[in-house]
Amino acid sequence: MKRLLNPFVVVMSAILAVGYGYLAWRLTAGTVARLALAAPFLMIWIVPVVYWVGDRENKGWVDESVHFLSYLCMGWLNFLIVLCAARDGLLLTSALLPAYPGIHAFLRDSGATWVFIGSVAALGAGALAALRGPHVRRVDVAIEGLDADLDGLRIVQISDLHVGPTIRAAYVRRVVRMANALVPDLVALTGDLVDGSVARLAPQVAPLAELIPAGRVFLVLGNHEYYSGAAPWISHFETLGLRVLLNEHAIIPVGGSRLVVGGVLDPAAQLSDPAQAPRPDLAVAPDAGRAFRLLLAHNPKLAPLAEKAGFDLQLSGHTHAGQFFPWTLAVHLLHAPHVAGLSRRGRMWVYVSAGTGTWGPPVRFGTEPELTLLRLLRSDANAAGMRPSIPA
């Protein structure tokens, strides 16, 4: 009973009840149809209550299957609600425009069927877009005063893989193979790589050990690493040859120049320890002199602190660019101006990856999973400040 009274569960249950009531009212007739419609809502409700708020671990194929089905239901009901609301809007509009009685009659009599068909089609198209990813996004970043030795430096960014119920070793292996083919000078992993424990997911992330160049693969934790057990994951990532940066930096010599790679904690670290705050000022290496300073920060909202600390470029993830409609619109309310792609914060560039994998529903609709190749260029070689992103 205490679990059911958890504030998160109460709010989530209320939202699901309203959603179910709306769809049952607008799309179904009869007890059997309404009971059938209740099943996907129940699947969505089970995962937070039993696993997130409860104490059950993902230990076997049954748990994985429950999560997978729950996430598929999330995606399908998202499109079902959107299309149902669109149909109701068109019904209202056509009722106010009596010159088109045929349209109104079609929407009234056959619209519900087409809402179901459209939602399944949207889910299928979105799942295909997600699972065939990622694509390579190439971005050139012009830096004023960039040292000649750093001109053309190639950085591959991997972010938000979310290895777990829907992203497995085969997908990770494909990402690693694509990243290595880009011949990077360094690799930046900007958090949320996993959704689950080391014991369960170690075999699924094993391909990350094959990333090149060895010794230049850097990682910062995202909020999902903290949900999954930060300390065990830090130890495991290091066994894979990944350098985990926790409010600290590494200095890489490049010819006669130097590159400072800083990394900060995610704000989610404060959930368990309020003293564990993201500190770009501790990761900036002020004694490194005239070096280029790159910050890895999972959450793009850290950009003001990063610019104040003196970084030249921040790489982030976290937003997924909204992942699928209509969240592709809603994400702008939370993360503008650094939602996705390249933007500025004062003198500092900020690049936000749309994510290399997916969280929850294995669906992309209006966005694409990306593996990002960023090249640093001297500003006199690219006065526009950014060349268009070009899919490979």
Explain what you see.
The protein has 392 residues and is an alpha/beta fold. The chain has 2 domains: 125 residues, no CATH class; 257 residues, Metallo-dependent phosphatases (Purple Acid Phosphatase, chain A, domain 2, 4-Layer Sandwich), CATH 3.60.21.10. It contains 10 helices and 13 strands. It has a 7-stranded mixed sheet with strand order 5-4-3-2-12-1-13, covered by helices on one side. A 6-stranded mixed sheet has the order 6-7-8-9-11-10. Helix 9 links the parallel strand 8 and strand 9. Helix 1 packs antiparallel against helix 2, helix 2 packs across helix 3 and helix 3 runs antiparallel to helix 4. The termini are far apart. The relative contact order is 0.14.
Q: Which keywords apply here?
A:
single chain, 392 residues, alpha/beta, Purple Acid Phosphatase, chain A, domain 2, 2 domains, 7-stranded mixed sheet, 6-stranded mixed sheet, 13 strands, 41% helix, 17% strand
Please name the CATH topology of the largest domain. Answer: Purple Acid Phosphatase, chain A, domain 2
Share in β-strands: 15-25%
Structural class: alpha/beta
Low-confidence segments: 381-392
Can you tell me the CATH superfamily of the largest domain?
A: Metallo-dependent phosphatases
Brief description of this entry?
The protein is an alpha/beta fold. The protein is 41% helix and 17% strand. The chain contains 10 helices and 13 strands.
Architecture blueprint of SSEs:
Layout lengths: L6 H21 L3 H22 L8 H35 L5 H31 L3 E9 L10 E5 L10 H13 L4 E4 L8 H8 L11 E3 L3 H6 L1 H10 L3 E2 L3 E7 L2 E7 L28 E5 L6 H7 L3 E4 L10 H9 L5 E5 L2 E5 L17 E9 L11 E2 L1
Parallel strand pairs: 1-12, 2-3, 3-4, 4-5, 7-8, 8-9, 9-11
Antiparallel strand pairs: 1-13, 2-12, 6-7, 10-11
Helix pairs in contact: 1-2, 2-3, 3-4
